Amino acid sequence: MSNFADLVQMRRSIRKFTEEELKPEELQTILRAALMSPTSKSSRSWHFVVVDEKPLLEKLALCKEAGAAFVADAPLAVVVLGDTAATDVWVEDASIAAVTMQYQATELGLGSCWAQVRNREMADGTPADDVLRFILGYPQNLIALAIIAFGHPAIERKPQDEDKLKWENVHVNKF
Ligand SMILES: Cc1cc2nc3c(=O)[nH]c(=O)nc-3n(C[C@H](O)[C@H](O)[C@H](O)COP(=O)(O)O)c2cc1C
Questions:
Q1: Is the pLDDT score of 22 beyond 80?
Q2: Which residues is 149 bridged to in the sheet?
Q3: 2 pLDDT exceeds 70?
Q4: d(Cα 129, Cα 4) in Å, to the nearest integer?
């Protein structure tokens, strides 16, 4: 990818992956990007749980009623956690880290997709965060924001359509 303008246009959510695993250096580059992402007051309030075991990925995919099934067939996922005791803006810190990883993945030629966890639940009302906490064992001060699945794309997606950008949502000086 030659520049950031191209990168933002090429990034699309990828929910189908080949069986090829990520190389250790690719994973490290993705995590490095997360750890370099900006945080309020430099609190670096996030934690990241890398999951690359198929049985665990299958369990993660069931943490909410709908919208996370693709995680089961990804070679790897990162569960993004925020520390509620460290900052009142953990959602923002964790979101920025999550999307930074997605752009880094795109730059590496990898696909990714966000599965929302915060404020999501299973069909019986069990919070998705409770499900993940039980599986992964993280402490009470942390809350899961999202699962980001990564892998080699098994489908090709068109870049963002320049003609469909919502420029009307941009306001200058006055709404
Ligand atoms: C906050 C957030 C939550 C999302 N949650 C899900 C999700 O739970 N499941 C899913 O399949 N995609 C999820 N996505 C991906 C969006 O569906 C996707 O970004 C959107 O359809 C635009 O497509 P694009 O990413 O290819 O541009 C989420 C994206 C964001 C930013």
A1: yes
A2: 77, 113
A3: no
A4: 33
The answer to whether the beta carbons of residues 78 and 150 sit under 8 Å apart is yes
Q: Name the token pair of 91.
A: 């959602």
Question: Which residue puts its alpha carbon closest to atom 23 of ligand 1?
Answer: 13
Q: Provide DSSP, 94-116.
A: HHHHHHHHHHHHHHTT-EEEEEE
Q: Rounded to an integer, what distance in angstroms lies between the CA atom of residue 119 and that of residue 112?
A: 21
The atom of ligand 1 lying closest to the CA of 160 is 27
Alpha carbon distance 152, 157 (integer Å): 13
Residue 143: CB atoms within 10 A of its CB come to 19
Record the pTM. 0.98
**CATH 3.90.199.10 is the classification of domain 11-157:** no
The answer, yes or no, to whether residue 42 has pLDDT greater than 80, is: yes
Atom 11, ligand 1: which residue's CA is nearest? 67
* Residue 57: pLDDT band with limits 50, 70, 90: very high
Nearest CA to ligand 1 atom 28: 114
CA 132 to centroid of ligand 1, rounded, Å: 19
Q: Report the distance separating Cα 18 and Cα 82, nearest Å.
A: 30
User: How many whole angstroms from 116 Cα to the centroid of ligand 1?
Assistant: 8
